[in-house]
Amino acid sequence: MSAPASIGWQAMGGHTIATEMEETSVKGMHYMDVRDDKGEMTKAALEIKFKRIAVLPPIGKQNRYPALDLTVIHAGERGARARSAMMALREG
Fold it and tell me: Which residue spans within the chain are E strands per DSSP?
């Protein structure tokens, strides 16, 4: 396995775990049956991503805290329905 990417503190100009996961390719899919808001059964597809990342503490705390070597797992629904649900949450 390759060495983990290093992520610095967002305020210091490094990038975040979220941006690192956006750049990561989908490693697998999981399909499930769910009920929509009308009670009808529908299929949902989850995209699974994972990546080893070394998360660095803020610059002022690096001498007191070590970098953390984490495995980040990210799952999100594939398709337009997921985007419309997120928009509904933001509006509400």
Answer: 5-7, 28-35, 41-55, 68-77
How far apart, in whole angstroms, are the C-alpha atoms of residue 85 and residue 39?
Answer: 16
Six-digit token string for 12: 């210091």
Report the candidate in 58, 74, 68 with the shortest Cα–Cα distance to residue 19: 74
pTM higher than 0.70 for the full model? no
The tens-digit pLDDT sequence of the chain (92 residues) is: 555 555 554 444 567 888 888 899 999 999 999 887 888 888 888 999 999 998 888 888 989 999 899 999 999 888 756 556 655 665 55
Mapped onto helix, strand or coil, the DSSP state of residue 24 is coil
